[in-house]
Every structure is written in structure tokens, then in C-alpha cells.
Amino acid sequence: MSTFFAVFRSEISRIFSLRPVFSVMVVAAAIYAVFYPQPYLNEALRKVPIAVVDQDRTQTSRELARLVDATPDVAVAQVLPDMPTAQHEVYSRSIFGILLIPRHFERDLLHGRSSPIALYADASYFLMYQRMNGAVTAVSRTLGTNFEIARLVGLGVDPPVAAAATDPMPFVAVPLFNPQGGYATYVLPAAFVLILQQTLLIGVGLLGTMPGAPTPSGGARRSFGDVAYESIATLAGKLLAYLVIQALIVSIYLIGLPYLYGIPRLGSVAIILAFAVPFTLAVGALGLVVAAIFRKPVAVQLVFAAIGLPFFFLAGFAWPAEAMPMVVQWFARLLPSTLAIDGLVNVAQLGASLSDVRSEFLGLWLLAATYAGIAVIVEFRNRRAVWDPAIS
Amino acid sequence: MQRSDHQRPGFSLVFWRELVWLRRRPLLFMLVFVVPLGLMLLLTAIFSAGLATRLPIAVLDLDGSELSRSIIRAVDATPDTAAVLHVAELSEGRHLIVSRKIRGLLMLPHNLERDVFAGRRPEVVFFYNTQTFTVGNLVLRGANSAIPSVAAGIRISLRTAEGQPVEEAKTAVTPIPLQTHALFNSTLNYVHFLLAALLPAVLQTAVVTTMAYAVGLDVETRHRFAVLRRLGGGLWPAMLGKLLPYTILFLSMLGIADAVLFKYLELPLRGQPALLVFAGIVFVLSCQLIGALLALLLRPTAAAISIATLLTAPAFGFMGIGFPRIAMNDFAYGYGELLPGTWYLMARIDQTIRGTPFDLSLKPVFVLTGFVVVLISLTAIRVRIMRRSIPEQAS
């Protein structure tokens, strides 16, 4: 037990005394908490600027343009005389779509003919495309339905019957979670888990590679069992130290920040924190494995600098895992972030119970055990090497 | 290092010394080749499918009529959604959505067919999950295209039953048909939209951090800094010789990624290739100079690398690919403005999928060139200040 407590105390004090470690685990975590969410704080993309090319110039065509402008998603920024001018504006990114209302739009409508309109929407930015397409589709359907009802009523059909004939089977889409479709609500819960993993992984990687770790004393030859016991006690001491330090940071990231940024939470705090325990242990143990592989603090820093972005997309959150090759799906499951993002988002944002996310929960414990096992073996070899250099 | 014994100080001496370092230092080698290629390969593998199709949804069919079956067939037939299972009650479907076994739930109410033809307007409800943004929107798109088309079929049949000719009925049910053209990426392919932007974004972080480290190797001690200057035989040749090997190597990495994108993943190249290459060069140079400047300003090198990571690792969100920049707050918009990646991605989108005319393509390229000029000047000023602080040693 003395080894366990000695390692625990020394690891805690090293986290605070080694500047690079403290910078990554505490300072960077604090900065990212404010810095990372900035682009998404407005939550929604509103008023995407488009141009109207109105070749009809009638009351009805102007009414159509006005209805499009009145939607929250799209704003008619310009009314332009022809398509080439409008295309020029699209290329210069001052507008992102063109609504073309052809000549005789009103005349054809009034004569009961089909009167098509066209939307040219910039699909080099998907979110803008989606907003423009959604808004203009809705307006053209509504306006078209109004005309259809008016025609039927003109033919002597009762208004309620006309309404039923034009829309016999209304389609209602109900978003179960994140009903406003907010971008921050979507991206931040997952990103916070990933930031936790990155800062802890690099922090532990640095701790494991920087000098000053309590070194096993040389001297007398020790039995296999003693060394094994000491290795396990050392690892347990380290992991407990990380768990204690992270307790505050994880709580802030998983409970405090979502609250401050107004992200709805359906799940209970207790389940979220219960889920965070195997996650923290798995990342901490993985960090020790990383330290054993890279050996130099600067290598840990550099190799892991750019790795966050691929890891984020690997989690199967922003891009469905179903669409990834099997090899990639299997690799993704080796990372604590993949299971943790699935599990924690399901618990916190979808209100899942612990039994709903049992497989992720157990998976994280399995990862924690596996990486801890590897870390113990590494520790064991290092300790034996102290009195028997032939082994290393 | 035999060369240094024989060669005169100058650009090529520093240049070759750097290449020898790359061969002898496994970490540097890994950072220039293994890490960028590995990460770009991983991202390419993730998005290789390009489109997410046939996402699983469940059906709660309380009607069991001919109409409800035809709706299920229509939803199953869209490229976006696949009706993979039937559930018996709403709570079961909700449970499956929460555990992400399915991505959406289509509910067809009791007596759907009877009520539709009696004019009672029963609702067809589709539950989906917007917490997973992309997937939620994709399944919604599938349901949104399938169900109104079934409804349109019903409306046509209601009219033909009244004796209206089929063609006339078809016209009458959609008085204002909307033709939507997805400009520049007509299949809405994620490879061309997201992957093509992610690769340079990863490279940006790799270049800035690696350069902070590589330059840090030379400026960690005053002595080493003086050695570099003497080897270069002056400020400019030393700087150029130090930076250029990495420019070439990182550009090659970008080139390999682009070759894969253009050749195997069918990214179109509709603009001017020369402009794309030039933009790539000034992009890599800007990133290098940011890294170099950080190494010159911050000691120890580990601190420079930390700051480089802090500035560039979260940069992708600021570059406005997923969430557009026009919707960001002032701080995020301004920070995006300062990132080379923001401008390079603009130039890249212009020259690949958009095929922007030459005169409208120049702004991002000019801005990147401006970055390079400003950063070179700042670096030179910083180096001069550092030189003054070093006592001149006899050579």
C-alpha cells in the first residue's frame, strides 16, 4: 500500500509542478472551454443571402420573392436582371443561391398550367444548400397548394373538401432531440468529450515521459511477485491520481459547460459521471501506453497535435459509422472517445439509461482494463530492468 | 556531415544539413512523412464512401393496408433510407433511436387508408434524431422525398377518379414545381465537400507544429542560432535553406493527398491548376512561417509547440466548412480571417469544384501571399533583434 500512496502523491504533485503537464491538463482545458465553442455560439444559420432573378415582374412573382424572403432561413439580398450577373455574384460569394422566376410565371399559373421555378443553390457549403433548398421548397409547396385550392374552390368544390384533396395525407416530421437543429447543440457535446481525451492523453503522455517519476530503487534482487505487486500498485496510484485531477475538469466539461452554453440535457448527472469514470481510466491508461511508445515529451506533443480532427470524425457522430469501411470501424473502437461520445451523448442529450448504453459502458471498462494491463507489463519490465539490465 | 567540411557557407549548406537531419532524426522524419500521410489516409478511409446511403429506419405500421405498404416501399426505395424493421409500439421505436440502432421511425396511423380516401387528412409522422446532425438530415431528406410523392399519387388518383385526364391531373397537383440544382456538387458528395477540406486542415496543424519544433532545434540555444547563421553565410540564405526542405516535403504530402482525391475520388478540377498549386505553395509557406515565428518568439521550444497546437488544432471549426462563417460571431469570424487555412480552402474550393473565373479567384491567393510577405518581414525583424542580443563571436 505504501507504493500506491507514494505514487499517488508524487503524481499529483508532478501534475502541478511540471509546467508543460499543467499547461495541457489544466490551462489548455480552460482555454478550449472558451475558445472551441466560439464559431457555433449563434447556433443556427439564418438568412442565407440569395438573389432573385425575376423575369416575370408581376404581382405573383414579387409575392413569391417576398414569401421566400420572409422565411427565417433565407434572405433575398439582391434582385438581379439576368442569370450571368447572378452567377457572377455566386462566384464572388456575396450570394449563395439564385431563385429564377421565368417569364409568364403568373400567366401560366392563372391559366392552370404548370408554372415551374428554379433554384440554383450553392452546394459547396452543404448547410447553406440545405437551408436554401428547405426554405424555397416549402414556399413553392405552400404557394402552389394555395393556388390549387383556389382553383378547386373556383370550380365549385367546398373549401374543406378542396383542402383535403390538395393535402390528403399531411406529412409531419418530428425531431426528437435538438429540435431547433442547433449546431452548437449538435457539435459541442461530442467535441467536449474529444477535448477531454486529447488534453488528458497528452498530459499523461508528458507525465510518463518527463523526468522525475518515482524511480524504483535498485539494490537487492527482488522476487517476481514483489515486482509484479509493485507494478500494479504503481499503476493504480497513477490512475487514481488522474481520476482525482480529472474529477473537476470532467464535471465542468460534461455538466457545467453544456449548462453555460445552453445545451439541453435530458440525462441524469449521476449516470453521466458514472460513465465518465471508465472513460477517464481508459484514457489515462492509454496515455501511459502512449508514453511508453514515444518516450520523449516533445514526440508526444507533436504526434498528437493534429490527431484530434481525424479522431472526431472517427467517432461515428458527425459521419455515420455505417458508411465507414469495417477496418476503420474496428480501429475506431480502440479509442475511448468513440465509445464515450456515443455513450455520453446518448445519456446526456437523448436521456438514455445506463442499460441503454450498457455495451458502450462495458466497452470502456474493457478498454481501460486492456490499456491498464499493457501499462502494468511496461512498468514491470522497467522495474526488472533496474536490477537486471540484460532484460531490457 | 562531410559536406559541411567542404562547402562554402550559404543556402545549399543549410538546405542539405536539414535533409541530413531529416534522415537522422526519426522524430522529424515521422512528423514530415508518417504523421501527415497517416492522418490523411485515415480521414480518406473514413469518408471513402462519399455518400451515406440506406440509413436504417423502423416503421410502426398501425394500418397494415395497401396504402401503408406502398408508403413503406417508397421510403425503402429512396437512396437515403432503408426500412429495416417493424416495431409494435412507439416506445420501442424511441428506444431503438436512443440506442442508435435505427436513425428514424415512421408512424402510419390506424385507418390511414380509409381516412385518406374519406378526406379526413390523417397525419403520417416521422420521428428522427437531430442530435446527430448529418444523419438526421439525411433520413429526413429520404422521408421528405418519399412521402409527398406518395401523397401526390393519391391526389392524382383522386382527380382521375373524378374523370380528369391523367396529364391534366399531374399538372394540377403541383402548380409550382421547383427544380433545384445543386451547384458545383450535384451529387452532394461528402468527399468533395468535407474530405477535400479536412486534408489541408490536418496538414495546417502538422506544418505549424512541426516547423515550431524544427526551428526550435536551431534557436533553443544562442550558440546553435549563431551556428545556423554562420552556416548560411547571412540571414536570408540561412532562413531560406532552413525552410525550403520542409516546403518541398509538405507540398509533396499535399500533392499525394490531392492526387488521390483527383484520381481515385473523382474530385473535379474545374479551375486553373496553376492557381491551385500557387495557392498551395503560399499556404504551406504561411503555415511554416507561423510555426517558425512562434519558435523564435517563445522559449522553450515545448512552449512554442504548445501554443502552435492551441492555435491550430481547433482551427477547422473556424474555417467555415461545416458551419458557415457568415453565421459566426465577430470573434470567430475574425479568427478565421487570420488562419491561412481559411483562405486556402476558399482558393481550393474555387479551383476544384466551383471553377471560379480567374478574376474572382484572386482574392484568397492575394491574401495568402500577403500573409507570406508580412510573416517573412516579422521573422526577419525578430531574427535581427535576436542577433543583436548575441555577442559577435570570432568566426
Topology:
The complex is a heterodimer of chains A (392) and B (395).
Chain A: H1 2-17, H2 19-35, E1 48-54, H3 59-70, E2 74-80, H4 83-91, E3 97-101, H5 105-110, E4 117-122, H6 126-154, H7 159-166, E5 171-175, H8 183-209, H9 224-260, H10 269-294, H11 297-303, H12 308-314, H13 326-332, H14 336-348, H15 358-387
Parallel strand pairs in A: 1-2, 1-3
Antiparallel strand pairs in A: 3-4
Helix pairs in contact in A: 1-2, 1-9, 2-8, 6-7, 8-9, 8-10, 8-11, 8-14, 9-10, 9-15, 10-14, 10-15, 14-15
Chain B: H1 3-6, H2 11-24, H3 26-47, E1 55-61, H4 66-77, E2 81-86, H5 90-98, E3 104-108, H6 112-117, E4 124-128, H7 133-161, H8 166-173, E5 178-183, H9 190-219, H10 222-232, H11 235-263, H12 273-297, H13 301-312, H14 315-318, H15 330-337, H16 340-354, H17 358-389
Parallel strand pairs in B: 1-2, 1-3
Antiparallel strand pairs in B: 3-4
Helix pairs in contact in B: 2-3, 2-11, 3-9, 3-11, 4-7, 7-8, 9-11, 9-12, 9-13, 9-16, 10-11, 11-12, 12-13, 12-16, 12-17, 16-17
Question: What key phrases describe this protein's structure?
Answer:
heterodimer; A: about 400 residues; alpha/beta; abc type-2 transporter like fold; 2 domains; 4-stranded mixed β-sheet; 15 helices; 5 strands; elongated; B: about 400 residues
